[in-house]
Amino acid sequence: MTRTLIQNAILVNEGKVRKNYSIIIENGLIAEILAKGKAPSAPSDETIDATGCYLLPGVIDDHVHFRDPGLTPKADILTESCAAAAGGVTSIMDMPNTKPQTITLKDLEEKQRLMEEKCVVNYSCYFGATRTNYDLFPQLDAKRVCGIKLFMGSSTGDMLVDKMESLRQIFNGTDLLIAAHCEDNEIIKKQIGKHRSIFSGQDDIPLIKHPYIRSAKACYVSSQLAIKLATEAGARLHVLHISTADEIPLFSNTPLSPEKKITAEVCVPHLLFCKDDYLRLGARIKCNPAIKQKTDRDALRAAINTERIDVIATDHAPHLWSEKQGGALTALSGMPMVQFSLISMLELVDKNVLPIETVVEKMCHAPAKLFNIDKRGYIRPGYHADLVLVRPKTPWKLTRNKILSKCAWSPLEGHTFDWKVEKTFVNGHLIYDGENVNVDHRGEALLFNR
Which listed residue, of 27, 187, 217, 232, carries a Cα 20 to 30 Å from 81's Cα? Predict the structure, then answer.
């Protein structure tokens, strides 16, 4: 491993923005952090001039669906990890609703093997909860498994757990973090029935009704129940993709710490889009839980600047374009976002929605702290050199040929970004140079200090 000097960068780390900073990478780790005028302790083999660029810790996305194994026509670990690398995402945590689902120890082992074989960034995998497999939880390796994924609302796949007895067994059955998709299935069913009656002469329900079917009430009722069950059990609960203003007060406005057992994630689509965008983008922005009102989007944006929202993720969920056709009942839910999540949030910095320090806190530091990841998520001596250089005021238009996800579409296609990812380093290796991904590189399994 060569000794690399990245010099003259604007360093954003641990709540501070520092100009004219340099770092040394050696043996895959951050060896030195140097203020302006401070000389390295030894010569470097290569120098990267980062003048005008911001140097950030690599993004840790705690919520992706890379579709491997079994759903690889729409995405696979190699293609989606390349998209992640091009977006400045250096670590991912993959969800279990693949084919087969990651709900047995054997299938978890196979998923981990595929990640080791194919993933260009660092990785971990969730174990999927079902109504009956909670007896396997004590056998999971807490050093390698990021958490338990619990679907309290039905979504892509068939892993719904909505029986109270099973839910209590799950919440009482593990010390691992339980990452929950919260939507009340009975409320959704009633709304489907109501809207089928209204649109009885049509084959489908108009897409614009999706946020009324998967309603704010469905989200609130389910999130409230999850918090109640977790509190009773003393469990560690992470509520995924908060999508409503109503849910925000359910969470504590206290800083992230080991004592904070109930946490919340917001995903990039719910920060970028609102119901009005269905008219323009259609099923491109159909996801579960649904994109909702502008007031919800704006409340979520505001909540990022508090401690009620702990993490920003993507819920990266590619589908074939043919699968995205149809209305509220037939078009599949989910969109590819991992390649453009960081630069999309940096555009919110330009709009004065949030400071750049908060982007780094919620996308890099907080996931590392929340999951207690070993030596990642910060720019500190001795930590893994997972880093991204981004350049502001560099307009470029997203065209289809720039999309690295296998599905080859994006709801952001045609958008002109003002930020550009220039370089991404994973474990000290330059794996994205602003144009190309080093497809021969492989990331490492994330390790958790538990």
Answer: 27
pLDDT tens per residue, range 10-63: 999 999 999 999 999 999 999 999 999 899 999 999 999 999 999 999 999 999
Show the low-confidence residues of the chain (pLDDT under 70): 1, 154-158
CA distance 163 to 59: 36
Burial bucket for residue 283 (CB in 10 Å: 0-12, 13-18, 19+): buried
pTM confidence score: 0.98
90, 424 contact by CB (below 8 A):
yes
Phi then psi for 123, rounded to 5 degrees?
Answer: -155, 155
**pLDDT, tens only, 303-320:** 999 999 999 999 999 999
Distance (Å, rounded) from C-alpha 162 to C-alpha 131? Answer: 8
Pairing of strands 420-426, 429-432: antiparallel
The closest alpha carbon to 153, from 222, 96, 227, belongs to 222
Could you tell me how many residues make up the chain? 450
Domains of the chain: 4-55+382-397+417-432 (2.30.40.10), 58-371 (3.20.20.140)
Helices (H) and strands (E) in the chain, counts: 12, 19
Using alpha carbons only, how large is the chain's radius of gyration in Å? Answer: 21
